[in-house]
Amino acid sequence: MYVVDEKDYEYRNENLNGPKYLMKGPRMNFALVQFQPGKDFKAHYHNVMEENFYILEGKIDVIVDGVVNHLSPGQMIHIEPGEVHYVVNNYDEPVKMISTLAPYQEVDKVEVDNYTY
């Protein structure tokens, strides 16, 4: 058992964008993810890990295998291994969400170039 404090971690990218991992392994990843308006991350998929996003604040578009899902607070999306997903904040306010990935794999992300939907 251990306890972490979000304040002890930083978002991966500048200006409070991207994931802030509070736990990486040994069985799953747990992160807070934040995107400012207009920000996104590259389309990708995972070979083994499944991913979940639970929306805390704001709105976000999560595109999975070409299908656009407009999500808002209280909604969750589950993404299976092999499903290409792209996340973009097309709205005028920041979004904050929780991301979980399991089972933990040190390297399991496959980026997709020139993704269109």
UniProtKB/TrEMBL annotation:
Domain Cupin type-2: from-to ranges: 32-99
Against InterPro entries, the record matches this protein to:
Cupin_2, Flavonoid_dioxygenase-like, RmlC-like_jellyroll, RmlC_Cupin_sf
SUPFAM superfamilies, alphabetized = RmlC-like cupins
Protein name, please? Cupin type-2 domain-containing protein
